[in-house]
Amino acid sequence: MKVVVGMSGGVDSAVTALLLKRQGYQVTGLFMKNWEDDDDSEYCSTRQDLVDVASVCDVIGIDLEVVNFSAEYKDRVFADFLHEYEAGRTPNPDVLCNSEIKFRCFLDHAMQLGAERIATGHYAQVREWANDGRSEYQLLKAEDGTKDQSYFLYRLNQEQLAKTMFPLGALYKREVRRIAAEAGLHVAEKKDSTGICFIGERPFREFLMRYLPTRPGEIRALDDGRVLGEHQGLMYHTIGQRKGLHIGGLKGHQDEAGEHEAWYVAQKDVKANVLYVVQGHAHPALLRDHLVAGELNWIAGRDPHSHWVYTAKPRYRTPDQPCEIDRIADGRAEIAFAQPQWAVTPGQSVVVYESKVCLGGGIIL
Question: What range(s) does the tRNA-specific 2-thiouridylase MnmA-like C-terminal domain occupy (predicted)?
C-alpha cells in the first residue's frame, strides 16, 4: 500500500514516516509550504524545516515531494482568520488548517500521486468498527493525554478518516524521541513548533497590525461603567486576557490579603468598540455554565443524543468537562456544563467526547 506522509521537519512526522516504512508500506514524504508573506523573516522556519525533511527522508530511504498550498491557505484559512478577528472573535486557525489544508488539499494531492492512505504525525487514533452492518470510523484520543490532538481534528469526516493513519496515536512523546534517536534522525531532540500554524512564535499583535488597522476605543469597567483606559483594537484582546491591558495601576477591589485584584477582559462590544474588563479571576462575568455553538461537525455524520452525559473541551488546554447537549437545531448546539467554565471565548472551538471517542463539535458563538 502506498502512503503519503505529511512531513513538517519535526520529530513527530519523521517517526511517522519511519514506522510506516518499517511496517512495509510504500512511503513518500510530502512537505507542504503554506505561507509566503515573510518567508525570509526570523520567525518563519520553512527553509530550515525543508532541509530537515530532506535529511530525514534520505536517512529513512524514501522519496520526497514538495507542494505549495500558500494560495489555498490564504483563501481558506487566513481570510477566515482575519474576518473572525475583525468581528471581535478569537478563532483557532489550526482547526481550520487541518480540515481545509492537511486533510483536504493534502489528501487530494496525495490521491493524485497514487496514494491509498495519508498519514500525519498527529497524536490521535482512528478506529474502524461495524455499526449496523456498515463500517464507521471513529476519531479517538491519543494514549499520551498530554499530547492528544484530537481537539484540532474534530472537523474531519468519515471519508477523510477512512483514508488517514495516525501511527503515533499509541505512543508517548518520549518514545517517539527515543525511536528517532536510535534511528539516527538528527531531529530527535528538535524543539516542537508552537504558536499558530503560520505565525509561529512571533509577537502576535505586531503581526496582526500588518493586516488589520488599529481602531482605538474605550476600556470600561463592566461593573460600574468607568472609563479605565484605551485599547488599540478589540481584535488584540481575548476573553480572560490579563496582560497587555495597561491598566494594572488602577485601584479597585481588593482580595482577602488586601492586594488589588488584577483586571481581566470579560466582554467586547463590537458595535460600540468598547472593551469591558472586571477585577478578579473568579468574577462571575468570567464564568459560564452554558454555551451555544455553530458550524457544527459530527464525525459520525449524525447528531449525538441530547441529554446524555458527555464531556467537552471549550478550549484546547482545558481538562474534559462533564456536560449535556441540551438541544441541536438550526445548525446550532446548546451545551450545558456541570460546573461553570472560565473565560468561554467566542470563536474558539468546543469539542465533545464520549469517553475516548471524539464526537465532533462547533464554533462557540
Answer: 288-364
